[in-house]
Amino acid sequence: MNQPRRRKTTLDAWLNSVITPIYFIDARRRVRFYNTGCFQLTGWMAGDVLGQVCDYHTEDEGVDRFRGELCPPPSVFQGTGHTVATFLTHKSGHEIACVQECFPLTDAAGEVEGVLVVLSPLEQPRKTPQPSAAQKWHAELASVRQSIRKNYRRASIVGESRSMQRVISQSQLAMNSDCPVWMTGEPGTGREHLARTIHYESAYQTRAFVPLDCRRSAAIELKRTWQRMLEMINPDEPFSSLQPGSLFLIEAEEFPRDLQQELVELLDRQQNFPADRRVRVIASSTRKPQDLIDHDQLLPEYRLLLSTLSIELPPLRDRLEDLPLLAQEILENLNRGEDHQLEGFEDAVVELFQRYHWPENINELTEVIQAARSQATGVHVTEENLPFRFRAGYDAQRENPAPSESFTDLESYLEQVEREHILAALEQSRFNKTKAAELLGIPRAKLYRRLESLNIETED
After folding, report:
1. What string of pLDDT tens digits covers the 460 residues of the chain?
2. Sheet holding 82-89, edge to edge
3. CA separation for the pair 29, 52 (Å, rounded)
4. What angle do CA 113, 118, 120 make, to 5 degrees?
5. Is 332 helix (H, G, I), strand (E, B) or coil?
6. Residue 66: how many CB atoms within 10 A of its CB?
7. Where is 226: in which H helix or E strand?
8. What span, in angstroms and rounded, lies between the C-alpha atoms of 172 and 152?
9. Under a CB-based contact definition with an 8 Å cutoff, are residues 116 and 105 in contact?
10. Among 364, 178, 371, residue whose Cα is nearest residue 281
11. Under CATH, domain 13-130 is a member of which superfamily?
């Protein structure tokens, strides 16, 4: 009996018709093929990714983030096949657990021409090869960002340590309110980055973020800038995106005392302004507000106004459990737009990082990784790639260990944390004690007892 003849079809048309998710990335990391199975799995259409470059990083939002998730580990482009468990973000926002099987395709000379990737959804537990340390931190970074994104909308503040979870929670309170914020932290701990995150995730995001370095700017220049800002927030002027939304005072204790008084008066006066004319103040310092008042560097009313919500950023040496994630994040951010993509760090490098005290905090970590990346020839940062400044600092630290940290009384510290948390909840609820108790997850009667115990006075 004669067999019916099959209609001839091209290979790419056949691959496009199968429901197994398959895509192909060329040696320049451009997506050249993306079949119907990929669309059915992820919700992203071929037009969203075809012809686009995939960099090895975990992007914050949208299709850029998805393209980063499609990118195979850089070692695959050197000819090493990989099967890794990963997460892809569906166009609707939910995560898809899957196995990514990466097959490097080489020419006659052994050069990698591209990578064929087959995706298998992880609907049931399945044994997958153990990932390398670098791939593990890449996956962990993506997972942490997704967790933060679910709970706090943004993933630009990375950290799993207890101190950073507190910072993230306090930042969310700041994003949802218009109260002034005071940030305390050593140089390089990311105060301005956090201030910008709060601004762009708050109701002030459609207007300008205005950083003002009070220590490095001359008093006369500060006063000129202040006067220009006052002119721009005139409630009678038409709305403009150039109008100030958030004023970020860097080293706020250096703001001249006459301007401190004017700022207090402005914030009191602008309660009668339309919402789109009010300015939100975020102040920062390396010192706590009470220390500055004790040294007569802040007007008491200025301090009381700005410290409604206080956020203390920990130094890097006190959150070393976050360091592998931070280092991976910095390295992957540097991958963007670069031909040479790096996968991560050798284990020995991570161990060195975690034994170093980082006196300049995240700023120093960033500079060290930038310098090491420029020296790396493979897909991992090795000990040999680390710059001289890091080696010298590390050796000096071994010879002269950092002094042990002094500790404050635990009871006083916990009382201050509780006071700040309650005040932040009251501010967000506009001093409605029933709503504040709900935010804090405690009965209303208990809130009243804590207000009395902490001597927090509020209007009934």
Report:
1. 455 444 545 777 888 888 999 999 999 999 999 999 999 999 999 999 999 999 998 766 789 889 999 999 999 999 999 888 888 989 998 888 889 999 999 999 999 999 999 999 886 444 555 566 666 666 666 665 555 554 444 546 778 888 998 998 899 889 988 888 999 999 999 999 999 999 988 888 888 899 999 988 888 888 888 888 888 776 666 666 678 889 999 999 888 888 988 888 888 888 778 777 788 999 999 988 777 777 777 888 887 777 778 899 999 999 999 999 899 999 998 998 889 999 999 999 999 999 999 999 999 999 999 999 999 999 999 999 999 989 998 888 876 655 555 556 677 777 777 887 888 788 778 788 888 888 888 888 888 888 887 778 776 5
2. 31-34, 22-26, 112-121, 95-106, 82-89
3. 8
4. 165
5. helix
6. 21
7. helix 219-232
8. 6
9. yes
10. 178
11. PAS domain (3.30.450.20)
Residue 219 token pair: 């008093």
pTM of the model: 0.72
- CA 437 to CA 439: how far, in whole Å? 5
The token duo for 386 is 């680390």
Write out the two tokens for 309.
């919500």
- Tokens representing 374 are 């420029």
Single-letter code of the amino acid located at 388: F
Sequence-distant (≥ 6) Cβ neighbours of residue 196 within 8 angstroms: 209, 248
Tokens describing residue 227: 């006067």
SS3 144: helix
The CATH number of the structural domain formed by 409-460 is 1.10.10.60
Residue type for 315, please? Answer: P
- Distance separating alpha carbons of residues 138 and 75, to the nearest angstrom: 13
Tell me how long the chain is. Answer: 460
| Angstrom distances, CA of residue 375 to CA of 229, 384, 387 | 45, 9, 9
Residue 127 backbone dihedrals phi, psi, to 5 degrees: -75, 125
Q: Sort strands 31-34 and 22-26 into parallel, antiparallel or unpaired.
A: antiparallel
Domain 318-399, architecture per CATH = Orthogonal Bundle (1.10)
User: Could you give the residue range(s) of every CATH 3.30.450.20 domain in the chain?
Assistant: 13-130
162-313: CATH architecture: 3-Layer(aba) Sandwich (3.40)
Provide the 10 A C-beta neighbour count for residue 329: 22
Residues of the chain with CATH 1.10.8.60: 318-399
| Residue indicated by tokens 């789109």 | 276
